[in-house]
């Protein structure tokens, strides 16, 4: 049901028809998704139009993130601060160091500073005030799958 809603807005009766279930059964599932904040319902008289809110789904892993606090000196880099909290492995490319694993978990990582995606390498970002850093592991999620059949 949520997968269908990700494709675009739909009336609840049309969704029930597509899912081959009754409108009352669809409505029960919709209430669960709505309570979880995963969809928006707009009413036009007796007609209900549903729209997915995938950003809520993407934010879910944040609730399980490990959290810690450090007190580095003013002018320390973000990389220096991270090294106080976890085992960090980096790879140097030119003058920049890129994070390639945290506590043995290999992957590609981005980082945000106070909710904004940073545009410089961690070893070059100098800390000058209280800051919240979020490390985001890029997880390969299939957005689209295409089967190619050669004639």
What key phrases describe this protein's structure?
elongated, 25% helix, 28% strand, alpha+beta, three-stranded antiparallel β-sheet, Ferric Hydroxamate Uptake Protein, Chain A, domain 1, 151 residues, 2 domains
How would you describe this structure to a colleague?
With 151 residues, the protein is an alpha+beta fold. It has 2 domains: 2-59, Winged helix-like DNA-binding domain superfamily/Winged helix DNA-binding domain (Arc Repressor Mutant, subunit A, Orthogonal Bundle), CATH 1.10.10.10; 65-138, Ferric Hydroxamate Uptake Protein, Chain A, domain 1 (Beta Complex). Helix content is 25%, strand content 28%. The chain has 5 helices and 9 strands; from the N terminus they run αβααββααββββββ. It has helices at residues 2-6, 12-19, 23-35, 54-59, 78-83; strands at 10-11, 39-44, 47-52, 88-93, 96-102, 105-106, 108-113, 116-117, 133-138. The strands form 3 sheets. A 3-stranded antiparallel sheet has the order 1-3-2. A 3-stranded antiparallel sheet has the order 4-5-6, with no helix packed on it. A 3-stranded antiparallel sheet has the order 8-7-9, with no helix packed on it. A hairpin with a 2-residue loop joins strand 2 (39-44) and strand 3 (47-52). The radius of gyration is 22 Å and the shape is elongated. 9% of the residues are buried.
């Amino acid at each position: 049901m949520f997968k269908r809603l990700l494709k675009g807005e739909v009336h609840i009766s049309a969704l029930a028809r597509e899912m081959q279930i009754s409108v009352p059964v669809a409505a029960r599932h919709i209430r669960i998704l709505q309570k979880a904040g995963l969809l928006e319902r707009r009413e036009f008289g007796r007609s209900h139009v549903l729209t997915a809110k995938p950003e809520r789904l993407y934010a879910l892993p944040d609730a399980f993130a490990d959290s810690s606090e450090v007190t580095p000196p003013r002018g320390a880099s973000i990389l220096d601060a991270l090294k106080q909290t976890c085992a960090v492995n980096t790879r140097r490319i030119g003058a920049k160091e890129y994070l390639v694993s945290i506590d043995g978990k290999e992957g590609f990582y981005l980082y945000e500073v106070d909710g904004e995606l940073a545009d410089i390498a961690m070893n070059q970002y100098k800390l000058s005030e209280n800051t919240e850093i979020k490390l985001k592991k890029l997880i390969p999620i299939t957005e689209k799958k295409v089967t190619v059949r050669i004639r």
